[in-house]
Amino acid sequence: MTRKLRNIIIFGIAVFSAIRVAIPLGITIFVTWPTKAYACACCGYAGEWFERTEKLESLQVEELNQLKFSPSAKLYLTAAGFDIIKGISSNSETYTLFHSKNKRSWNFRFVDEQGKTGNLSFTLPEKFIAFGTDFYDKPYPDFRLYKELRIEGKVAGNGIFSSGINSDSRFRLILQGRGSYCLDRADFKHWNLKVFGSRGSYSFYGSFK
């Protein structure tokens, strides 16, 4: 075998080996890169802070409708006690909660410690406020944010809430949790529901299952 022919054979083997290594590597890059890019689209980063208004789309309503409220709610009180409460005919601090929904229609049924009941009902609005901030306590980007989802609108009520409800009564529901930049029901651990207007002013709070 001549030296020239041997060099050609060695070169051919080297090229084949390089192609055999490069092809799987190229496939790996093609497959994994979009996955990482998708994950980072939801990442929160060091120093991040945002507060934005967004349209509440049907897919997001479906996500929110999968939230499971724990069956206990507490009335927000300060050192002033019930003096800060206006529009509830009940002296209970703890309530049993039943949450029901039908697409954008939500209802909260509260039962106080004496068995008296009242309903607060509202329609999920067309827009919501998303808030998030870095708490500077996580070394990785995916779940470092404290986040809130805030919705507000008109509210109707009956039973123990009747005296505090009129045409200007409104609600503000805030979902609170830790997580990523994107809306994910699993991120939310607590909630706060405030009712306010000329006749009523009170807040309930609780957690999710």
Structure write-up:
- The chain is α+β, with helices and mostly antiparallel strands and about 210 residues long.
- It folds into 2 domains: about 1-40; about 50-209.
- Helix content is about 20%, strand content about 40%.
- The chain contains 2 helices and 11 strands, in the order αβαββββββββββ.
- The protein has helices spanning about 5-40, 60-65, and strands at about 50-55, 70-75, 95-100, 105-110, 115-125, 125-135, 145-155, 155, 170-180, 190-195, 200-209.
- An 11-stranded antiparallel β-sheet has the order 1-6-7-9-10-11-2-3-4-5-8, with no helix packed on it.
- Strand 10 (about 190-195) and strand 11 form a beta hairpin.
- The longest helix has about 40 residues, at about 5-40.
- The relative contact order is 0.18.
- Mean pLDDT is about 85; it is low at about 1-40.
Task: Throw out a few tags for this protein.
11 strands, 2 domains, 40% strand, single chain, 209 residues, 11-stranded antiparallel β-sheet, alpha+beta, globular, disordered N terminus
Overall strand count:
11
Strand composition percent: 35-45%
- Tell me, briefly, the overall form: globular
Q: How far is the first residue's CA from the last residue's CA?
A: 78 Å
Q: How would a crystallographer describe the biggest sheet?
A: 11 strands, antiparallel
Q: Which bin fits the share of residues in helices?
A: 10-25%
Low-confidence stretches: 1-38
What is the CA-atom radius of gyration, in angstroms?
Answer: 28 Å
Sequence of secondary-structure elements? HEHEEEEEEEEEE
Tally of individual domains: 2
Mean pLDDT level: 85
